[in-house]
Specification:
Length: 166
């Protein structure tokens, strides 16, 4: 269980992020057309998972914009944002913000991603949402970087996440 804060108040997640060097857990997430995707669909590409509570909050939207801007020059790398938002909300954001370098995926159907990656919040006002985190995996699905952001209102460390790809 990870302890993080929301506006300075302690809250907790169901577990801890996958450890660096471990195999990333498999998942099934929804695309904006309601089809599904799994970790196997990314085999052969490096993946930066930008994970957050909701696209409709300022910091979450900012993280998608920042990763979108930085993703343009990454070789063999996909940037994937994951939240419990509906696929429709994620599609609207992509269209409104023109964030085409990022794939937005939804964990709304099962919550399996949040559970297996240890980031579903279990108490407080954001109970059931994902905590803010970044997990980077290599071409074979091995975790090469992780960051559990300690305060939900704080942005992730973009530079450190991207340095893991060098």
């Amino acid at each position: 269980m990870a302890t993080i804060t929301l506006s300075g108040n302690e809250i907790h997640t169901v577990g801890s992020l996958p450890e660096v060097g471990s195999q990333a857990p498999d998942f099934e997430l929804l695309k904006d057309d309601l089809s599904t995707t799994t970790l196997a669909d990314f085999k052969g590409s490096r993946v930066v998972f930008n994970i957050f509570p909701s696209i409709d909050t300022d910091v979450c939207a900012t993280s998608v914009r920042n990763f979108n801007k930085r993703a343009t020059d990454l070789e063999n790398t996909k940037v994937v944002s994951v939240s419990r938002d509906t696929p429709f909300a994620l599609k609207r954001f992509t269209k409104d913000e023109d964030t085409n370098n990022v794939m937005n995926l939804s964990d709304i159907r099962t919550g399996e991603f949040g559970e297996s990656y240890g980031l579903t919040i279990v108490d407080g006002p954001f109970e059931g949402f994902h905590s803010r985190a970044v997990v980077v995996v290599d071409e074979n699905g091995k975790v090469i970087y992780n960051q559990q952001v300690p305060e939900i209102g704080q942005e992730p460390d973009y530079l450190e996440a991207l340095k893991s790809l060098l």
